[in-house]
Amino acid sequence: MKQNHNPAPGEGKENIVPFIPDGDFYFKKGVDAFQKHKFDRAVKWLQKAIEEKPDNPLYQCQLSIIYTETGSYHTANQILLNVLETSGDSYVDCYYLLANNCAHLGQLHDAKEYAESYINKNPNGELREDAEQLMALVDNDDSDENDEESGQEDEQLTYHEMVCHHMERQEWDKALPLLEDMSTLFPEDDHVRHDYAYALFFAGYGEKALGMEQTWLEEDPESLHARGNLAVFYDARQQHDACQHHINMLRNVYPVQEQQKLRIAVTFAQTGQYDEAYTRFRSINDQQMDLMSYYKWYSTAAYQLEKPTKAFSIWEKGCERHPELADEKRPWDAE
């Protein structure tokens, strides 16, 4: 007679092979999502793959391609530069990808240099023809410019983009060394010292940052940058009267340049002046905005004014352009 044998608890488990996802699994999921144009999901899978294998340049380059596809060229370039810094020339395609992104950003001198680097380092590479076409386009657009002056402007713009990338993500320890380099290379760039003070304040050096901005405001009482920084600093310290003094001065200022409009709008939002912030954000040409802070603080102002549909729409659009925004705390999340 056949007897049934019921295994005791735990018996036979040694035959079960547990499935443990690895970097290649996450990478494949990310590529699949990318091919289906599900960019937010693709970014999350690729980030998981990188967590599993942080030294794999292929994973990081694929992530940069996703950011390029969504128009986040600055973020893509930062990833590619990190790959070159850590991996050397083991992944030469980075140079072509950088060239392509720089061309989209209008950084023609840098685009040409990166394309040339790709060809020099990989003369028989499969992207050689694309790199040569890119160089030809750049030469046509850049033929009347002075190469030396253009190169300096491109270098300065590249620094600005890298600093902006780190500051928007509150990576103060990465922003500060770059700003120190910029203060030496471009001493006449007024934005650099104010960005330095801002990063310094939130890196934990509040007294020093405050002192710097107060001195600069005495030297130039019309400085919008100094007043904006001081308003944010005093608000963070809950010195409301001092904050309000600078806010009141900014209420009567209506800049023409889009970047200055954004700076003032964000300042109002950061200091809780949501009515004023919302009005200022509405005056900005969103076609010229590719900054995460625009979507983050515009959505915050809209939500605080009980416009949840508008706030959600702005946030979703921001996540499409900057997938990493999805990892930030949303305005409607509970404290």
Automatic annotation (TrEMBL):
Organism: Lentibacillus halophilus
Cited InterPro entries: TPR-like_helical_dom_sf, TPR_rpt, Ycf3/AcsC/BcsC/TPR_MFPF
SMART domains for the chain: TPR
Superkingdom of origin: Bacteria
First and last residue of the signal peptide: none
Each TPR repeat, start to end: 23-56
Record keywords, A-Z: Repeat, TPR repeat
Gene3D superfamilies: Tetratricopeptide repeat domain
Xref: SUPFAM superfamilies: TPR-like
Record protein name field: Tetratricopeptide repeat-containing protein
